[in-house]
Design brief:
The protein is of the alpha/beta class. The chain has eleven helices and 14 strands. The chain is globular. It binds UDP-4-deoxy-4-formamido-beta-L-arabinopyranose. The site of UDP-4-deoxy-4-formamido-beta-L-arabinopyranose has 21 residues, from α7 and β8.
Length: 347
């Protein structure tokens, strides 16, 4: 049974991956500073995984270990690596809001770039060279027109978040070339939705930066009204278009990437776009949510947000051909699951 290290897992995407990987009989070590999550999620994960093992006779699940530490502290990392034999790291870690990164560039570089550097040097020290990295479509050069492929030009990023991902991608490419790392670089953009158990999902404690969590807080009445950032983009209804992917589809793609990585004999740096090829505008997101919750949502249109681009969606063809996975869930599925999670949330 292989042991995987998940960095900053509780950040939503990580928790859905943890469930799937435990169900696939991997041991999981979670390394997180709990800056934006709660220990309650650990219980929810255990609950989901225990239910899966009881429902399917003969299914064994992996073990879960948790370290409440920070990647910026090398000593913390050293202890984790010295206490465990880690096969692969799945590196979700990082601050992740485009707008916030323009407000706090240094914080973003320290968390994302310095934290990653510490992790990579510890991996080399302990000869653990397999890594799946959560990168982002924000690395694509802003003048490029979607749909993006993995070969679309990158760089010249519009915000520190995107730049931090661009820098880390390049560090990992060098580590693959010069230090025999095996790297799967996954670029994704807008994961939304929640687990079908409705026990885990996205519900930031602060005012959300991202669209769907914000819409959900307006739907529950926690926030009064949504700000729509700009209706002067060159898009179907003048609002921003993004490629929203269900977080459970995203987790399944990580599992395929892990299988692909384990088949590689030599060092590798391989990039995959994990998207659906379906763009959805802000106004469409509002409309879909209204249709699902059967209520009108209050919104106001204001000026564009710093760092935003008009439209981003891409072809997932390469990932489908090589990783053998195709996103199965729609944007409406994701909104429905998010809504059910929010209504049922216990923490
Ligand atoms: C989506 C659209 C906004 C909030 C995300 C992640 C980031 C990275 C890149 C993976 C835009 C509009 C939003 C609101 C709005 N992902 N909007 N009102 O900016 O695409 O960034 O993708 O690496 O981690 O944050 O996502 O959800 O913030 O915005 O009108 O209150 O919704 O302008 O057009 P974004 P988002």
């Amino acid at each position: 049974m292989k042991t995987l290290l998940l960095t900053w897992w509780t950040w939503y995407i990580g928790s859905h991956n943890a469930v799937l990987l435990l169900e696939q009989w991997y041991n999981i070590i979670i390394f997180d500073n709990l800056s934006n999550s709660s220990r309650y999620i650990l219980k929810s994960i255990q609950q989901i995984v225990t239910a899966s093992s009881l429902n399917q006779v003969g299914i064994e699940v992996g073990e879960l270990k948790f370290y409440k530490w920070d990647l910026r502290n090398k000593n913390d990392l050293n202890i984790v690596f010295s206490e465990n034999t880690i096969d692969t790291v799945i590196h979700f870690a990082g601050l992740k809001a485009v707008w916030e990164s323009c407000e706090k560039p240094q914080e973003y570089y320290e968390n994302n770039v310095v934290g990653s550097m510490n992790l990579f040097s510890m991996m080399e020290q302990y000869n653990c060279k397999n890594i799946i990295f959560s990168s982002s479509a924000t690395v694509y050069e802003p003048t490029q027109t979607p749909p993006f492929s993995e070969n679309t030009l990158t760089g010249n990023t519009t915000n520190p978040y995107g730049t931090s991902k661009f820098i880390i991608e390049n560090i990992l490419r060098d580590l693959a070339h010069h230090k025999d790392f095996k790297v799967i670089n996954l670029r994704y953009f807008n994961p939304i939705g929640a687990h079908s158990s409705w026990l885990i999902g996205e519900d930031p404690s602060d005012i959300p930066n991202n669209l769907l969590p914000y819409i959900m807080k307006v739907a529950t009445g926690e926030l009064q009204s949504l700000w729509v950032y700009g209706n002067d983009y060159d898009t179907i209804d003048w609002t921003g278009i993004r490629d929203y992917i269900h977080v459970v589809d995203l987790a399944a793609w990580h599992l395929s990437a892990l299988n692909f990585l384990s088949q590689q004999q030599d060092s590798i740096f391989e990039t995959f776009n994990l998207w659906t090829w379906t763009g959805t505008s802000v106004m469409e997101m509002i409309q879909y949510t209204q249709d699902i919750i059967w209520e009108d949502l209050s919104y106001n249109i204001i000026s564009r947000r710093d760092g935003d681009i008009a439209s981003a969606y891409c072809s997932p063809q390469k990932a489908q051909n090589i990783l053998w996975w195709k996103a199965k869930k729609t944007v409406q599925d994701a909104i429905t699951d998010s809504w059910n999670f929010i209504k049922n949330k216990k923490y």
